[in-house]
Amino acid sequence: MRESWRWFGPNDPVTIADIRQTGATDIVSALHHVPIGEIWQIDDIRKHQQLIESDNKQYSPLNWSVVESIPVHEDIKLGRDGCQIYIDNWIRSMENLASCGIKTICYNFMPVIDWTRTDLSYQLDTGAYALRFDQRKFAAFDLFILQRTGAEADYTDTEICDAQDTYNQMSAKECDQLTRNIISGLPGKMTDSYNLEDFRQALAQYQHIGESELRANLNNFLDHILPIAEALDVKLAIHPDDPPRDMFGLPRIICTAADLDKLFIQQPSPANGITLCVGTYGSRPDNDLPAMARRFRSRIHFAHLRGVRRDPDEQRSFYEANHLDSDIDMVSVISELLSEEHKRAQADETARTEIFIRPDHGHQMMDDIGKTVNPGYSGIGRLKGLAEIRGVIKALSALNKSTSQ
Ligand code: DNO
Question: pLDDT digit string (tens) for 153-208?
Fold first, then answer.
């Protein structure tokens, strides 16, 4: 298992020197300054690598091993005439990364919005802060702030009443904050930021695109990408839609085990893999994470090991819990990943067998509080997550060793 850590680049308040102290060995990063759809040039990639590796001679080395993410231009998701140029550019970026030795690439295929939360400072019983998705607030935004045409059809009468109550109780400042959280985007998002009017227009573009059309557009993209990824020995790792269900009437197609079955039946290439984002898949009760880790084990190249707790009375609402203390059996998930790595190593000692894992969305706690941090990407909160996960990995590895002797 390779312990990795997401770094947003030179403006990230959590520095490379900080990351090194966590004991992580690999960096997950992206060229966030390159506009969506443009080529990541080799010079730019090398510059970013140098920022990461500049102190490697003096201290324990850190390498940029995983890209999260190369954004997929909206025209590709929409299957527009003329999107081939963006597919070609994506391929060029992938080739340039591979030529610099970076061969694990995460991406997603969420239309219009990337990951979405309603609260960025939800206070826990301990006093620390977590991210939260509240279905009632989301509905209040959709129905009464955005006033999306036809939104009522997506909610029951009770849900509309609840959303109305929620909306009535919100101050203008809270409405504004909720709007920004949802449509201006969160760190690492791979879509544009919008104002309300642009957002309505962006949604309207998908009026005639349902699940099957979006899936066809993903397949068209992969038809072009996968043969080249295979030739370059690049592993692609699609990230699930977060939260994993349709939103704003937009289709979302990477949400469940059944979605992944479809993906691999249509695109069996060994370069076609997944990011097992445990927290994302785990935010719906019908996803059994240890079972998914087992079923898709050979496809997992990258894993985000965080957990969520869903509200007992509203399973679509959740907050981001401690990495080991959530609705998900994280120990079993890690055990599956370890056994997959073992299997890979036995099959071919020279192959790339290790899975990159990273802590995700840490709490804001202790000295994180009061600092400017990228929501979800605090230093101490993620360090706590990593330390907990590391303990499980060490303990399970030791147990496996003693039982195989
Ligand atoms: C949030 C992340 C997302 C993710 C992209 C993957 O913390 O999981 O930003 O990186 O959606 O393409």
Answer: 999 999 999 999 999 999 999 999 999 999 877 777 777 778 899 999 999 999 99
Say whether pLDDT at 305 is over 80: yes
Q: Is 185 in the pocket of ligand 1 (CB under 6 A)?
A: no
Instruction: Measure the CA–CA gap between 92 and 85, rounded to whole angstroms.
Output: 10
Asked if residue 306 lies in contact with residue 361, where contact means CB atoms within 8 angstroms, the answer is yes
Q: DSSP assignment of 338-374, as one string?
A: HHHHHHHHHH-TTS--PPEEE--S--B-GGGTTS---
Contact 320, 29 (CB under 8 A): no
pLDDT tens digits, residue range 376-404? Answer: 999 999 999 999 999 999 999 999 888 87
Which of 114, 131, 281, 320 best tests ligand 1's pocket when mutated (most atoms within 8 Å of CB)?
Answer: 114
**C-beta 280 within 6 A of ligand 1:** no
Q: Is the CB of 190 under 6 A from ligand 1?
A: yes
Can you list the positions of beta strands (E) in 222-334? 235-238, 272-277, 300-304, 307-311, 314-321
Q: 209 C-alpha vs ligand 1 centroid, how far in Å?
A: 23
Q: What are phi and psi of 204, to 5 degrees?
A: -60, -30
Please give the structure tokens belonging to residue 290: 């240890």
Determine the distance separating the centroid of ligand 1 and the alpha carbon of 188, expressed in angstroms.
Answer: 6
Using a 6 Å cutoff on CB, does residue 189 contact ligand 1?
A: yes
Query: CB of 308 closer than 6 A to ligand 1?
Result: no
Domains of the chain are 2-41+63-113+209-404 (3.20.20.150)
Instruction: Check: CB of residue 105 under 8 Å from CB of residue 236.
Output: yes
Contact 182, 141 (CB under 8 A): yes
Ligand 1 atom nearest the C-alpha of 304 is: 8
Catalytic site residue 377? Answer: yes
Q: What's the rounded Cα separation, in Å, for the pair 138 and 314?
A: 13
Interval between CA 7 and ligand 1 midpoint (Å): 12
